[in-house]
Amino acid sequence: MTEMHLTVTTARATRQTAVVTGATRGLGAVIARTLHAHGYNVLASGSTIEPLRALVEELDPTGKTAAASVLDVRRKGDFEEALSTSVSKWGAAHVLVNNAGRSKVQSLMDIRPEDFGEIVSTNLDGVFFGCQVFGRYFSETGYGRIVNIGSLAGQNGGTATGAHYAAAKGGVATLTKVFARDLAAGGVTVNSVSPGPLDLPVVHESVPPEKLAAVMANIPVGQLGSAEFIASTVALLASPEAAFVNGASWDINGGLFMR
Questions:
Q1: Is the distance from CB of 45 to CB of 23 less than 8 angstroms?
Q2: Which one, 36, 70, 98, 209, has least CB within 10 Å?
Q3: Residues 152-178: tens digit of each pLDDT
C-alpha cells in the first residue's frame, strides 16, 4: 500500500467517510443515502457510473460530501482505487459497507460450473477483497468499521435465489468472523447484517405477485422487510459507539430464521 493510502489529514477527516459497494440501486443506494444523512462523506461505488452520478447529485450537488466510483468487486485493484479516492478527496476512510451482490434463480441441478463461479465471485470474492484492502488500512490507521451484507439464504440454506448465492452468503458470515478476529486489535470491527426478503422495487419487478404473496404468507410477521431499517442498522454498526459489537451477524428476517 502506498504512503498516500496511509496518510490521514486530521483537518479533513473531521467528517467520517464511508465507502459503499453496489450502490447503483436497491439496498446499496438506500445505505448510501442513510449514511450521508447520518453525516458521513459517501463514496458510492458500483458497476456503472451513471446511476452513481445521479445518486451523488441527489446527495450533494456540490460534490463536497459525496462522490462516485466504478468498482468491480471481483477485482482487488478496484478496492485499492476506491480507498485511494477516499483518502485523496477526504483525507481518510473510516467505514466500508460490502453490499454488492448478485443472485440468479436456477434449479440446483442446472447450475453450471461457470454459473457457480460467477455468482460466488461477485458475492464472496468482493467481501474478501474489500475486507483485506480496507482492513489493512484501518488497522494501520487505528480505526475502522466494516459491515458486510449477508442474507437469510446463507443461514438457512434457502435456494429461492440460487444455491450458489446461498453458498456465497454463507461464506460471507464466515469471512466476517475471520476478519473480525484478525482485525480487532487494530481498532477495527467487522460485522454483518443478514436480511430476509425486503420491500424493494427489484423484488416486485422480479417476483410475480402470486409468488410474492406466498412468500409474505410464510413470514411470521406477515410483511416484507424495510430497506431503510436495514440501512439504519448498518449505520448503527458503522458508528464509533459500536466498538463492542464484533464478528456478529444481525438477523433481520421477520422471524423466518430464529436462533
A1: yes
A2: 209
A3: 988 888 767 778 888 999 999 999 999
